[in-house]
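Continuing the series of single-chain predictions for the mutant panel. This is the parent chain; the variants come on the following pages.
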Amino acid sequence: MYEKIVSKLDDLKRTIATMESCTGGALASEITNNPGASEVLKFSAVTYSNEYKIKMGVSAEVIDKYSVYSMETALEMAKNISEFAVSDYGVGITGKINTSDPANKRGENDIVFVAIYDKNVGDYTKATIQVPHDKTRKEVKAYIVDYIGNILIELLNDAK
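Parent structure:
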C-alpha cells in the first residue's frame, strides 16, 4: 500500500511530513520502506512528550483544554508539521494504545486520533480509531498505519 502512496505523491509532485506520538515513527518508517521516499517525505518527528509537541508548535492551551489525547491536538500536530516542513500534507497522530498515562489521565486508553492536513485545500481529514485490544503494541501500530494508508490512498486519488 505504501509503495502506491509514495508513487502517487511523486506523480502528483506532492510531499508529506509526519508528527507521530503513540505510533513512534511507524508511519514514517512505512513510507521510507519504499523507493522514492526521499523525494516525498520532507520531515518526520516523534513527539512522545507534551514538551516536544509544544516545541513543535502545538499550543499548550489546546493540550490543557482538550488533552494531549484529542482530535484538537492531532489537528495542531498535522498543520504544524506541514508548515514546519513546508510539505503539502501533514499527518498528526496522538492517542493511547491500550494503556494509561499517569502524566495525562484524560482520554480513553484505546483511542487514537489522526489528522491529515492538506495545505493545498487548507482542510483536514480526520479519523478516530478504536484500537484492537487483542493485539500486541507492535500489531496495533501496524493496524493504525494501515488505517491511515487507506485514508491517504483515497485522498491522493481525489487530489488534483
